[in-house]
Design goal:
The structure holds two protein chains of two kinds. By secondary structure, chain A is mostly beta strands. In chain A, strands 2, 4, 5, 6, 9, 10 and 11 form a seven-stranded mixed sheet that branches. In chain A, strands 1-3-8-7 form a four-stranded antiparallel sheet, with no helix packed on it. Chain A is globular, with a radius of gyration of 13 Å. The mean pLDDT of chain A is 96. By secondary structure, chain B is mainly beta. In chain B, the strands form three sheets. In chain B, strands 2, 6, 7, 8, 11, 12 and 13 form a seven-stranded mixed sheet that branches. In chain B, β4 and β5 form a beta hairpin. Chain B is globular and about 40 Å long. The model of chain B has no long low-confidence stretch (mean pLDDT 97). The chains are: A mainly beta, B mainly beta. At the A-B interface, loops of A face β7 and β12 of B.
Chain lengths: 119, 113
């Protein structure tokens, strides 16, 4: 049974860089795209971007200039960096499993990491 | 971007009654190559990540009770809960994966009347 475990700093100051990592346990890492999704308090989810095992990425244009997603296949992990954060980046951040070819639905999710940006 | 709009924003239904949630996309999500609608429904309870209920607009995920059903095509979709149970209280989201960026609806909060 595939399980996602995510971690990272939960409190940031404006202009700092958000960094989160998600580890994939219990299944194949190479057969799927892996996404980051965030959900501001009281709002719907927003897709941030995705990556596969070979490092092929796809980003939401609304965040693309500040976002970087990377992969470490030796550890079955993928990571998210968001630079120059502001209060608007305050949200619950999830990692999730997508499909084989990307731009898909998400059948397995991490538990979420609350990130708060405040001075 | 494809904009997903759900209605209503909130809904109160009596136990055992039918609940209906609507989702409209700003562009058709029906792919002509395979005649599939690239539309998913999720259920989210407080403190939990979204749970996949239905994909391809009408296919139930394994383990999802059959009181949940999805219908629609093109730009108009519906999630129906045929007989509301207490454990169905949640926020429901639709999501399109027809084109990037993937987009979600704003959510519909379902409560017990």
């Amino acid at each position: 049974q595939v399980h996602l475990q995510q971690w990272g700093a939960g409190l940031l100051k404006p202009s700092e860089t958000l960094s989160l990592t998600c580890a994939v346990y219990g299944g194949s890492f190479n057969n799927n795209y892996w996404s980051w999704i965030r959900q501001p308090p009281g709002k719907g989810p927003e897709w941030i971007g995705e990556i596969n095992h070979s490092g092929s990425t796809n980003y939401n244009p609304s965040l693309k200039s500040r976002v970087s997603i990377s992969v470490d296949t030796s550890k079955n992990q993928f990571s998210l960096n968001v630079s120059s954060v502001t209060a608007a980046d305050t949200a619950l951040y999830f990692c999730a499993r997508g499909g084989i070819s990307g731009t898909d639905d998400f059948d397995i999710w991490g538990h979420g990491t609350m990130v708060t940006v405040s001075s | 971007d494809i904009v997903m709009t759900q209605s209503p924003d909130s809904l109160a239904v009596s136990l055992g009654e039918r609940a209906t949630i609507n989702c409209m996309s700003s562009h058709s999500v029906l792919h002509s190559s395979n005649n599939k609608n690239y539309l998913t429904w999720y259920q989210q309870k407080p403190g939990q990540p979204p749970k996949l209920l239905i994909y391809w607009a009408s296919t139930r995920e394994s383990g999802v009770p059959d009181r949940f059903s999805g219908s629609g095509s093109g730009t108009d979709f519906t999630l129906t809960i045929s007989s509301l149970q207490a454990e169905d209280v949640a926020v429901y989201y639709c999501q399109q994966y027809y084109s990037s960026p993937i987009t979600f609806g704003q959510g519909t909060r379902l409560e017990i009347k």
